[in-house]
Design a protein that fits this description.
Order of helices and strands: HHEEEHHEEHEEHE
Strand content: 15-25%
Distance between the termini: 76 Å
Number of helices: 6
Number of strands: 8
Structural class: alpha+beta
Shape: globular
Number of domains: 1
Radius of gyration: 19 Å
């Protein structure tokens, strides 16, 4: 009887340890099965805040930034591009051409609430994965050709995730490096850096 009790306790402890060890993050080696662009950015932002040094942490807001009532505070937010003015705001604030936006069917974003050019990031789901390279190239060209009004971001990255998501981020070099590290920690081999460019002159 004692042997059966010990065996049952051992099995129960094994299940408890496995359950506790599940962090909820995608498996770095396999398919990430991303639900949407908001989840993608949220996972990366959570990892960023867990791993970045305190001097690189700041408040963000995201979503439909053209309407303050729709802005999500302290987290990435979904951007509904069907709303009036949403595509214009997305294009201007996150340096993505209109034709690239039209190739996507889901978007999310976030930016530093005090200074957007210190950190701005957006994630897009490309409706047809054959257009991913066009979206990446469009973001790169628009960002490199942008006329910055308030401060000059130092660095741009564009990362593809799972083959049909595109994440772009620009801002302070240290912040962008830490964000890239967070993104690749969460998504592993599924996250491929397509563009990494210095912006500051």
């Amino acid at each position: 009887m004692k042997k059966i009790t010990v065996l049952l306790l051992a099995i129960a402890m094994t299940f408890i340890c496995v359950a506790c060890g599940n962090s909820g993050k995608p498996d770095n080696g396999g398919s990430t099965e991303i639900k949407d662009a908001t989840e993608l950015l949220t996972n990366a932002w959570t990892e960023y805040n867990e791993s970045a040094s305190d001097d690189l942490k700041f408040a963000v807001g995201g979503g439909n930034i053209e309407n303050f009532e729709l802005v999500v505070m302290d987290a990435p937010g979904k951007c509904d591009t069907s709303l009036e003015g949403a595509k214009d705001a997305l294009s201007v604030s996150f340096c993505i051409p209109m034709e690239a936006i039209d190739m996507t069917d889901d978007a999310a974003n976030m930016m530093n609430m005090m200074m957007a050019n210190n950190f701005s990031a957006a994630a897009y789901h490309v409706a047809d994965s054959a257009n991913v390279e066009k979206v990446v190239a469009g973001i790169k060209d628009a960002t490199l050709g942008n006329r910055w009004m308030c401060g000059f971001p130092e660095k741009l990255i564009v990362v593809t995730v799972d083959g049909d998501y595109v994440v772009s981020a620009f801002g302070n070099g240290q912040v962008i490096d830490a964000f890239k590290a967070a993104l690749t920690t969460v998504y592993g081999d599924a996250a491929v850096v397509s563009v990494e460019e210095a912006l500051a002159e």
